[in-house]
Q: What sequence folds into this?
C-alpha cells in the first residue's frame, strides 16, 4: 500500500487537526473528543448490525426500530426491577427477537426486506408510544469506569479509557467483529453467502441457517446500542428516543464500505462533528438556531451517501431472497 | 443475476378489480390486529370492549362524528395515495411525512400572507403552493435516487427530520404569529379556509377525486404505463426504451405533490395554521394505508376512513375508558404487520426483487 494513499491522508489530516486544536486548548479539545466518542459509539454499534446482516445478504433497515424497542425495554425493565443488569439482559433478548422476526420475514417468507424492516420500525414506534409511561426512573446509569494506568495518559486517557461498561463491551464487539469477518471461517462463510449464495450452498454452507443466526445476533448488538442510549449515555427514555440513529448508521456502514473499522472511523468522524457543533453553540462562537444544529446529522447522512454512492460496492446478493437450487 | 428464477409461489399483481377474495386479507388483518390490541388493553387493566365501543361510536355514530372522521381521513387518503404512487414505481417513499409538513407550512404561509383574494382563487393557490413544496422535498430524493443511486428510503427518512427542523425554525422565527409566545403561524385569512358542507369537508372530495385521477393516470395513460413498468422491472423498462431516471424522478414528484397537498388540505380545512405539533404521524399512517388498500389508488380510501375514524375517536376513547390514544399507533403497526406478510408475497414476488431492495447504489 502506498504511504500517502487516500485513506492515510485522511488519517494524517485528522491527526494534524486534532493536534492543532489540542495545542490551542487542551482541556476543551479533550472533552469534545470524549463527548464525540460517546456520541459515536451507538452509531458504530448500529452500523455493526447493518454490516453483519448485509454481509450475509440481508438488508436490515429495522435497526432504528430494534434500537428504539430495546432502549425502551432496557429502561422500563430496569425501572421496574430497579436493576440495570436485568434491564440490559431483557433488552438484548428483545433485540435478538426483533432480528429473528426480520429473519423469518426475509429468509422464510422471502418478503421484500425494505418493507420487512419498515414493519419493525413502525411496530417499535407503535409499541413504545402505546406502552410509554411518564415519570419512571432507573436506580443509576452504567457509571464511568477509569481504566487503571491507561486513563492517566493525557488526551487519550479521558477520550478512550473513561467510559461506562457498555462502551467497553461495545468497542470489544466492534473489534471482535472485524477479526471474525476477515479471519474466521464463520466470516468467510458469511461473506460467501452475501456475495454468491448458490456457491456457498454448493460448498455445503446452509444459507438460510447462517442468515438466521447472523441477523438474530445482529439484533442483539442493535439492542446493546439502544440500551447504551437509555442506560448509559442519557439515562432516560422518551417517545421517538433514537431519533434516526439507526438510519444514520446505515449511511455510516456504506461510507465505511461494509468494513467494521471503516464504519467505526465514519462514526467517530460523525460523533466528533456533532460534539464540535455543540461546543460551538456553548461557546457562542456562532449563533445558529438550534433547529439547524439539530438537523446537522441528517444533512450529513444524505451528503455522505451522495458522495459515496456509486463508488462503493455492496455485497452482491444483498436484498435478494435465496432459494435452494437457483443458479 | 438470477433472481428471476426464484419461483413465485403465486402469480400476483395489484388488484385491478374489486374481487372479494383479495379484500378478505385486509379485513381479517384489521380484525386480528384489534383482537391482539384488546389483549394489551386488558393487560393494562382497561376494558377493551368499552374502548372500542367508544372509539367507533364517536367516529361513526353521528353526522358530526362522520364529518370529523372524514376531516381526519382527508390527509390520510392523500398520504396513502402518495405512498401508493411511489410503490407503483418501485419506490418506497417513507418521506410522505416530511413532504406533508412542508405542504402544510407552505399552505399556511400562503393562507396568511395573500390578502384580498376571493376564496375560489385563494384556496386553489394555497393548495398548489403546498403541493409544490411537497413535490420539491420528494424531488430531492428522486433526483438522488436517479442520478446518484442513493436509496430513497434513507433520503426520505432523513428529509423528514430535516423538514421538521426547518419548519420548526420557520414557525418559531420568520413566520411566527406576532406577539405570540407559542411556536405557530398566524391564523390563515378567512378567504383561505376551506368550506364545510353540512359536516362534509370540501377537502375530502378533493382527495377522493384526486385518487380517481391517479387511478385513471396509472391504468389508462402512457405516463402511468411507464411508472408501472419501471416499478415492475426497471431493467425491462430500460430495455424497452423507457427513461428510468426520468420516470423515477417524476414518480417522486407526483408522490410528493400529493403528500404536500395532504398537508395543505389539513392546514386550510382543519387546523387553519401551522404549529410543529400538528400533522404528526400522518405521513407514516400513509404507509399502512397504502398497503392496507393493496396499493390501489381507490383501495386506499376505505382504509383511510377507518384509520381517520380511529384518530377522530381516540380522544373520546381515552375519556371513556382510560386507554391512551396511542392505541391507534399500535393498531396501525399490527395491521401493517398482518396485512403485509401475505400481501407483499403477492405484490412483489412476481416483479423483480431487485427493483426495490438490492443495492444502496444501483
A:
Amino acid at each position: 500500500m502506498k504511504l500517502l494513499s487516500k485513506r492515510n491522508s485522511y488519517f494524517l489530516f485528522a491527526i494534524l487537526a486534532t493536534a492543532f486544536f489540542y495545542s490551542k486548548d487542551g482541556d476543551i479539545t479533550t472533552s469534545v473528543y470524549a463527548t464525540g466518542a460517546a456520541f459515536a459509539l451507538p452509531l458504530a454499534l448500529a452500523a455493526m448490525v447493518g454490516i453483519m446482516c448485509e454481509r450475509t445478504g440481508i438488508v436490515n433497515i429495522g435497526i432504528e426500530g430494534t434500537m428504539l424497542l430495546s432502549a425502551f425495554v432496557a429502561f422500563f425493565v430496569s425501572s421496574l426491577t430497579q436493576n440495570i443488569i436485568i434491564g440490559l439482559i431483557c433488552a438484548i433478548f428483545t433485540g435478538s427477537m426483533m432480528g429473528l422476526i426480520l429473519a423469518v420475514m426475509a429468509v422464510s417468507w422471502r418478503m421484500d426486506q425494505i418493507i420487512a424492516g419498515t414493519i419493525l420500525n413502525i411496530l417499535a414506534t407503535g409499541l413504545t408510544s402505546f406502552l410509554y409511561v411518564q415519570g419512571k426512573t432507573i436506580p443509576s446509569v452504567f457509571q464511568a469506569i477509569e481504566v487503571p494506568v491507561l486513563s492517566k495518559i493525557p488526551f487519550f486517557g479521558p477520550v478512550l479509557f473513561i467510559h461506562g461498561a457498555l462502551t467497553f463491551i461495545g468497542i470489544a464487539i466492534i473489534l471482535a467483529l472485524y477479526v471474525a469477518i476477515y479471519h474466521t471461517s464463520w466470516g468467510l462463510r458469511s461473506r460467501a453467502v452475501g456475495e454468491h449464495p448458490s456457491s456457498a450452498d454448493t460448498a455445503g454452507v446452509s444459507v438460510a441457517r447462517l442468515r438466521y443466526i447472523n441477523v438474530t445476533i445482529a439484533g442483539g448488538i442493535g439492542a446493546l446500542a439502544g440500551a447504551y442510549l437509555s442506560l448509559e449515555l442519557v439515562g432516560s427514555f422518551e417517545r421517538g428516543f433514537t431519533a434516526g440513529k439507526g438510519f444514520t448508521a446505515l449511511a455510516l456502514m456504506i461510507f465505511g464500505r461494509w468494513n467494521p473499522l471503516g464504519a467505526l472511523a465514519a462514526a467517530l468522524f460523525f460523533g466528533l462533528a456533532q460534539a464540535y457543533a455543540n461546543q460551538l453553540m456553548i461557546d457562542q462562537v456562532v449563533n445558529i438556531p438550534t433547529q439547524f444544529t439539530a438537523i446537522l446529522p441528517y444533512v450529513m447522512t444524505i451528503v455522505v451517501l451522495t458522495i459515496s454512492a456509486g463508488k462503493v460496492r455492496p455485497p452482491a446478493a444483498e436484498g435478494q431472497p435465496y432459494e435452494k437450487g437457483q443458479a | 443475476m438470477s433472481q428471476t428464477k426464484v419461483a413465485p409461489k403465486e402469480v400476483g399483481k395489484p388488484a385491478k378489480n374489486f374481487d372479494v377474495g383479495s379484500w378478505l386479507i385486509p379485513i381479517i388483518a384489521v380484525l386480528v390486529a384489534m383482537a391482539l390490541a384488546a389483549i394489551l388493553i386488558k393487560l393494562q387493566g382497561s376494558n377493551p370492549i368499552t374502548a372500542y365501543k367508544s372509539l367507533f361510536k364517536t367516529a361513526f355514530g353521528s353526522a358530526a362524528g362522520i364529518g370529523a372522521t372524514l376531516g381526519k381521513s382527508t390527509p390520510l387518503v392523500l398520504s396513502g395515495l402518495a405512498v401508493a404512487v411511489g410503490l407503483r414505481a418501485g419506490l418506497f417513499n417513507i418521506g410522505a411525512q416530511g413532504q406533508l409538513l412542508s405542504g402544510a407550512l407552505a399552505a399556511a404561509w400562503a393562507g396568511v400572507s395573500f390578502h384580498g383574494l376571493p376564496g375560489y382563487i385563494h384556496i386553489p393557490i394555497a393548495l398548489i403552493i403546498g403541493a409544490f413544496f411537497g413535490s420539491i422535498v420528494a424531488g430531492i430524493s428522486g433526483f438522488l435516487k436517479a442520478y446518484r443511486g442513493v436509496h430513497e428510503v434513507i433520503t426520505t427518512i432523513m428529509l423528514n427530520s430535516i423538514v421538521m427542523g426547518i419548519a420548526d425554525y420557520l414557525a418559531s422565527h420568520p413566520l411566527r404569529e406576532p406577539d405570540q409566545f407559542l411556536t405557530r403561524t398566524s391564523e390563515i385569512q378567512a378567504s383561505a379556509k376551506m368550506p364545510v358542507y353540512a359536516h362534509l369537508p370540501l377537502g375530502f372530495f378533493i382527495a377522493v377525486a384526486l385518487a380517481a385521477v391517479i387511478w385513471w393516470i396509472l391504468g389508462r395513460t402512457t405516463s402511468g404505463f411507464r411508472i408501472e413498468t419501471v416499478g415492475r422491472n426497471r431493467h425491462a423498462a430500460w430495455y424497452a426504451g423507457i427513461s428510468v431516471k426520468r420516470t423515477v424522478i417524476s414518480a417522486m414528484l407526483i408522490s410528493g405533490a400529493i403528500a404536500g397537498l395532504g398537508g395543505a388540505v389539513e392546514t386550510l380545512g382543519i387546523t387553519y395554521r401551522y404549529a410543529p405539533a400538528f400533522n404528526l404521524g400522518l405521513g407514516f399512517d400513509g404507509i399502512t394505508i397504502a398497503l392496507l388498500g393493496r396499493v390501489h389508488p381507490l383501495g386506499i380510501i376505505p382504509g383511510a376512513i377507518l384509520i381517520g375514524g380511529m384518530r377522530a375517536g381516540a380522544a373520546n376513547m381515552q375519556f371513556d375508558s382510560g386507554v391512551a390514544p396511542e392505541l391507534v399507533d399500535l393498531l396501525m403497526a399490527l395491521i401493517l404487520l398482518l396485512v403485509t406478510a401475505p400481501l407483499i408475497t403477492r405484490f412483489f414476488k412476481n416483479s423483480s426483487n431487485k427493483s426495490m431492495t438490492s443495492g444502496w447504489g444501483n
Chain A has a mean pLDDT of 87. Chain A touches chain B through 53 residues (CB under 8 Å). DSSP finds 13 helices and two strands in chain A. The domain at 7-131+140-308 of chain A is CATH 1.10.3470 (ABC transporter involved in vitamin B12 uptake, BtuC).
